[in-house]
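Re: [ENG-882] Designed sequences occasionally contain unexpected residues at chain ends

Forwarding the minimal case from QA. Structure tokens:
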């Protein structure tokens, strides 16, 4: 059983899969309290569902791309089994995780999109850096940047852990806190080989809209 906040069909708003139709399975609970969190409604709200019920809910949308998100989906241990079941059923599975919990037991067929929390998040001390040893070349490591301090810290972490050679690196802005053009100018000035991204869904719909 898993406590599920919502299952919905939309487009993927971030990552290298941005723009593609995707089924989202949002799990309840989170062990982090990022200052810029936009899904606080997922901290506690949800309904207990069996894995069969969840998979049935996903299948009704007739879409093979599925993202497991939250909250923090890895708080609930049965999430590992859900992702394995979805892979076995032929789905392409993405996991959006905050980077504070181990990814070691995740099925290798799952594409992991993992944050490392920057200083302005208020959750810097929660980063579980051992995950860097587990991450695959096909996985994606995301930095959500709200200040110049965040940007400089991110560059240091990339260099310290040689991240450019480990996986795909994503740079995002904290929505409403840092203008996208400023981050883009920093990236170009430093000639960083990273992928800049916007939260596409926040430009298509109102930024606070649920279920998109």
């Amino acid at each position: 059983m898993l406590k599920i906040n919502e299952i919905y069909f939309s487009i993927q708003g971030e990552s290298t899969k941005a723009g593609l139709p995707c089924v989202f399975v949002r799990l309840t609970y989170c062990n982090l309290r990022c200052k810029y969190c936009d899904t606080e409604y997922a901290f506690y709200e949800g309904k207990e569902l069996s894995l069969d019920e969840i998979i049935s809910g996903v299948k009704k949308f007739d879409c093979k791309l599925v993202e497991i998100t939250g909250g923090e989906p890895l708080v609930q241990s049965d999430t590992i089994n859900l992702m394995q079941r979805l892979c076995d059923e032929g789905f392409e599975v993405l996991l959006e995780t905050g980077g504070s919990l181990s990814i070691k037991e995740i099925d290798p067929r799952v594409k992991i999109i993992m944050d490392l929390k920057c200083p302005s998040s208020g959750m810097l001390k929660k980063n579980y850096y051992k995950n860097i040893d587990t991450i695959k070349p096909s996985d994606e490591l995301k930095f959500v940047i709200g200040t110049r301090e965040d940007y400089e810290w991110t560059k240091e972490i990339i260099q310290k852990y040689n991240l450019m050679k480990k996986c795909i690196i994503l740079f995002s802005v904290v929505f409403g806190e840092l203008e996208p053009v400023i981050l883009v100018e920093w990236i170009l000035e430093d000639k960083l080989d990273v992928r800049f991204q916007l939260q596409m869904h926040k430009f298509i719909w109102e930024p606070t809209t649920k279920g998109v």
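QA comment: On inspection the terminal residues look reasonable. The first strand starts at residue 2 and ends at 11. Proposing we downgrade this to a documentation issue.
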